[in-house]
Structure formats: C-alpha cells, structure tokens
Records
---
Amino acid sequence: MIKDAFPKESEEEENTSKTIRFTRLQHLKFQNLPSLTTFSKEIDSIEFSSLSNLDIYDLAAFKSLCTQHNSHISTDINIEKSLVDGNVSFPGARRLEIRGLNTVHEIWSSEVKSTDFLRLEVLVIKSSCSCKSLFSSSMAEGLKHLKELQVQISDCKMMKEVIAEEEEHRPGKQTKSFFPQLERLELGSLHDLRTFCHVNHSLE
C-alpha cells in the first residue's frame, strides 16, 4: 500500500535540509489512493512553481501535502492537520479542486500566506472534511482573483462560517474587501453554517 509518494531516505540524511522543487509540473492529480497519507514525508518544503491545477479525489487517509522533516504522520483521524501549510507553495495555481477528503481539519494553516494563492481563480471543495471555517480573513482578502467558489461538504456539522475572524486584529474601523472578482458562489450541505463572514470590520 502506498502511504507517501516520496518516502524517508537513509538515516545519514536525517539532519540535512530537504526541499523538492517541481519547476515544470503544471497539473497534479491524486485519485483513488485510499492509503496515501502525504505527498512527501520528512521533507522540509515543496515548491510547485509552475503548477496551475491541483485535483485531490477520494483520498480517505490523506492528511497533508508535506510532512516536515523529523515529524510524524499520525493515523489518528482526530489529530488536526492542514492540507496545505507554510512548507508548500504553488504561487501559480489557478484551480484547486478537492473531493472525497475526509481526514483534514483545515485546508490551509495559519502559516500559509495569501500571496501563495494570488492567482487562484477556482476553488471547489466537495468532501466530508471537518473544517470549522474555510478561510481566515487575511487569507480571503488575499484571493483577489478568485472567480468561482463551490463548497459542498456532506453532512458537515463543523463549519459554522466560511470566513473566520482572526484572533489578532487592529483596533478601529477598517474596511475588508473579499473576492472582488467572484462571479459564482455555491454553498451546500453545510447544516450548521451560521454566517458567511465573521469579521469585526466594514465590508465591501
């Protein structure tokens, strides 16, 4: 059974910094890999400099694209894990589609910069992941080219808001501009969704 695409190497390399760079890869697709837990294990960072499309379908055990060097992927589905963290970057990505991903509690961690998805135009999430929210306010504010957002999470009892307020914010009245290019918005099967946006600011 395949559990990681790039497994651990020799013990002699444990203390070396490891970065994987895909300079020409444009389309990455995972489908029907029930035992796959991570794309790369014990790697410090991954760079997809030319990636434009990332599709993830029916990965029942998948937890994260990158597991840091000397860290450990747990098989406990209750361990919170982000699909994308600060160690993975694909600044050219235009489309991200996730289907059938059940073990992820966050799509992206707080370490991810919105500039890493500056060109993202289409985001489709159709799965049963246990996300409490989809974006932080700073992440949503950075997605200036997003045109299509589809979210359908089967029997989701966790997501209460699409855009969550961050714990730290500057005092005083501020204006937030989210998704200025958005043309299509679909939300479905979010049984406990209470609000689209929870921020203590004026919106545009």
---
Amino acid sequence: MNNNDGGSSPVSQPSSLSASAGKLIERLFGPASDEMGEYLAERLRQWRWRQDNFAKIAERYEREKTARGNSDDSLKSLPEGEAYRLAEACSFEDDELVQELWAGLIASAMDPAKEAVSTRAFVEILKAIGPVEAGLLLVLFQISHPPKEPSRSDLKNASPEEITDIRQQVHEDREKWTIELAALADRVYRRFSESQKDIAIQNLFRLRCIGLSTGRNLSEYQTRAGLPIGVLGSDAAPTYETFAKVADYLESLIMAGSGTGTYKRRLLLSRNPLLKSLPECRFALTHLGKTLLSRCKTQELAENVIHVVEK
C-alpha cells in the first residue's frame, strides 16, 4: 500500500495480535505479511491461548535477535511454506522452556550469520517434545561441553610444578562443572516423575535425538557380562558361554538404543569418576540432537540455564 507522497507505509497487522507478534509475522512473511498475518490471526483467534503462546515466543525472539546484534534489514527471508510451518507450530507450545527453543529456532532460521538449513525436521521435533525432553536435551548438551583439557604441548613445555598446577586447575574445573551439571539436571529434568522421564527418553530415542553413551572397549563389556577381564584376549580358547554372555550384553544395548528394550539394564556410566552419580550420562546427543540444540540455543539459555557459551 502506498501513501500519497509515493512512500511505502508500514505493514499493517491484525489488531488481534500483539505488537511483538505482528513484528514477527512481518519478518517471517515479508511482503506477504498482510495476507498471511490476517490468515494466521484468524486461525489463532479461534484459540486465545495460541495467540498468547505466539506473543510470548515473539517476545523471546525479539530478545534473541537483539542479543545476536541482528538488525531487521539484515534478516534472511524465509520461503512462505517454511515461515508458516514455524508460526503455526510454535503457537501450540505453552511451556516456557520449549518456547525458548522455538524462539531460538526462529532466530537461527533468519540469522544472516547462520548457514541456510531447512527447519522442517527441527519443527517436527519441537512439536513432538515437551518440558521433560527439553530438560534432558539441555543436560546432555552441557555434558557434551566439558571443561577444556590441557593439550600435550601445554604439558610438554611445562615444568613439574606447572604440571601440578595445571592438573589441580583441571580437577577444580571438572568439579565445578559437575556441580553445575547436577544443579541443572535438578532444575530442568530430575523434578519430573520416573514414568514421565521414561516416556521422554523413549520419545527422544524415537526422534533420533539421543542414543546410549558407548565408546567402551571389549574388556569393559566382558566385565559387565560377568566375565574376568582378558578372557577374550587371552590364549585360552573362549567357551560358547563366554561369547553368549558378551553377545547378550551387546544385544541389550542395541535393543535399548532402538527403543525395543529397557535402557536400565546393566548400562555403563561414564568413565569420569566425577560423573558416576549422574545417571543422565548413560545417554548422549546424536548428531541430529546436537544440531537441533545448536540451532535452538539462545543467549538466555546459554547464560542463565545451561551455562554453555559457544564461540
């Protein structure tokens, strides 16, 4: 719509939407925001709580956009189908933690500094999770960012006294990180019931966002199978029962990872002694899970929830 002086007037937004929601629609749909805004507003108007959800996510998005230093002019435009999927799907979410993930996903989708990646898979995942799954994902995200270890060159060029100081600092950093990790798990995940957590874990398995934490050598599997260490690597010919026990244990891991078995059966915890009391270490983010969190993580989450600030 043009003014009499030939200039363009600001895009009008449906009066039923809040100012922040109207701005987000304008940024998502660009020139088509008038038409799409009216259409989306009409759908949201049927359910007032969806309007409220969308407005809250829009406010979170505004904070994240500002934190990233992105101006409105620099934002990437999205295909209309992708923009509509984001706007429609996020309006159903009323949990604050998951709303923050939606805000991060929207911000990343339009962030000029982010690689252009289709959000379709991430939208479907966020639609399928709730606060329990979100809490576990954040805990595992922090687990995947342990304190930095000294490099070999750091130790090679250090004096014995410096090496002692370095190792002491590493121990203190690990201990602090572990305490923060346990506190995070208490806040966002452990407060839920066992049945809620069990269902959430299986749901994240189904979505291929988490897997079982493995990386074990054969001797560890032997130990868990109740066999003496070194049986399979010794000169003595292993018996059928030996192989059967190890195979049974490996099968239990595969079944648990596929969601057809229980993940509670004889699973290994982390080798790190500081993490022995953290049962969440039985699981690890998959590549899809890590990518999801990297796209959905906001400054608010990084600074005030998970304390992970990636460069």
---
Amino acid sequence: GAAALVVWIVAAWAAACGLRGRRHRTAASAPAAATRAGSSGSQSGAGWLWGAKFAQSCRSDKYLPGLDMARMVASIHIVLGHLYAKGALPPCGETHTSPHCVHGDNYLFSWGFTWVPWFFMLSGFVRTHARLNAAEITQLEPPLTFAHRCLGKLYPMYALGLVVATAVTVSRGRPLPYWYESAAQYALVQSWVPWLAETPLQTQCWFISCLFPYWLLFGCCYRNLVLRITTAGRAWCALALLCLLPWISFVAPAAWEESPPDWYADHHTGALRDDPGAGLSIGVATLKFNPLCYFHVFVSGMVLARLRDLAKAGRGGGASLSAALVCLRCGATLGYITLLLVFGLRDLRPESAKISARLTI
C-alpha cells in the first residue's frame, strides 16, 4: 500500500510538472504571438494593447522549474513520515509501538513532518517572486480576492477528501467527529483552536487552514515589508530577525532545569479529546498547528524572494550582495546536503526536534 501510494504521488507530480511546463512554454511564446498579432493588424488597437500587457505579465521569469523536484521529494517524504508515525513502515512498526520512534532502519522517514513549514516558506517565496516579475510590481489584488483565488486551487480537493474520509469512517463503524469539529474543518479554522486541530478526519491537512490567513495578509506584508527592502543588506537583516523568533522553542524548555529534551513526548494525537484541560497538550498542539507559530516562515519566503530579486538586479553592493549571489548559486546544494546529514545521522538530531524543527527556518 505504501509503495502504491508513493507511485501515485510520483505520477501525479509528473503530470502536474508536464502541465506546468506546457503553461510555461505557452507563456514564453506569448510575447512573440502578441507581436505577430499586432504587426498583422488583425487586432484593434485596444486588443493589441491588452494582448501585449497580458504577454508581458506572463513572462517566463515567473516559472521556477528547479522547484518541481523539490516539491516532489518533499511531498513523498511527508507521506512516508505519516506512515512512519503510524508504525506502518517496518522494522519500526514491528519492534516499536511509540509513534515517536526514532530507531530502526527507517529513521530518515521520521523527519517527514519538517517539510510542511517548508511549503509555507515556498508559498511566500513563489507568490512574491511572481509579483516581483509582473509588469506592475506595485499593483495588488484585494486581499480577499487574492486569497480566494489561491484557495480555489486547493479547496475542492480538500473538501472531497473530507467527504471521502467521512464515508470511510462510517463504513468502518468508527465514531464521527462532533459536528463543530467537522464544521471547523470545512471552514478552515481548526488550526486556530488546539482542541480542534487534531480531529480524526484529515488531520494532516491542517496546514491549509494556515495558508488562508497568510494569503489574506500577503498584500500587507508585500507592500509594507518586501517593497521597503531596497538592498541586499536589508534583506539579510530581515531574514536574521525572522530566524531569531523560533529560538524560543530552544530557550523556553532550557529555562526549566528538570525539563527533558523531549518534553512534548507525553502528548499524543487526540489527547485533548480525552483530557481537554491538559496544559502540556494545549501547548504542544498550539505550537504544532497554530498559524501564528508559522507566520514568520511564510514571511521569510517573501523576503527570500526579494533578496533573490535584488541580487539579480545587482542592488546592494559589498559583502551582502556577494553573499546573496553565493547562496543563489550554491545554497540549495549545501542545504540539501545538510538536511540529508541531519535526517540520516541520529547524533545530529537537535534537541526538542519535534517542535524546534517545525518552527525554525
């Protein structure tokens, strides 16, 4: 079953990449098509201007094909991480009953959860990159229009997944969530409330309820932060400040001498349904799911896109610009090598990894 699921994901991503590449080629040929149409006189003056603006807004600079493979690897690792946590990947599932098992030959799969915040960063990066490469970089859609347009690509499949999960639960004779838990999931507000974040249906889709408020705030952050960053040095400073925020996940547990590194281990998925007043579970669920805990990750993606844009334009000068150029050329390779080492070597596992690895950038 796990192998079939992985094959299905690879096939889906291959199809998506093919469609994306087709759109990319269409967008790349749009300027030439608009020019030919204008020179032949087959369009009116207003139509030619509209076609030229459309072609210019669909420049191929918006498409980043290098991200396709990263998306595929991240998606597969997330799925394997969920299977690992459920004990469905032997030998961990055969020899250990704890969902936090970090032993066995499948240790690499235990890190699948770390890619979810990466997708938050990627969302901010891609949308800012597209905006910075548009014909008019200062023109923005109304927040609700922009958020609805972004959500329209995800919500139909998300809602269908909830319906299918409900049908499967009923067919197996298992109890359904309370009506308000299901309503919160359909309304995409479950991540805001710790008691609703770990409902039995589609728990793994909690991240969508985080993305919607991020998209609502995209225009505000873009206008008041991204466009105000005019040099590579300022971009580096903004990234440094954003990276400092999640270090509280290291400092706070260390303030208590008796606090073990895995202080969150007593919490298990669904614990708040059994004991709604459990303080530890409330704190863990908040850190794991609340959109406020990941907003800095989304914004860091926006700032990173701005840094890339400034580096391409050569704005900044000095060491900050040189560092940006080095990161653009070698950063991804070094980053993936570092991730592979951390994911594969237990000695490099950071303290409080289940929380700190989620919140850090």
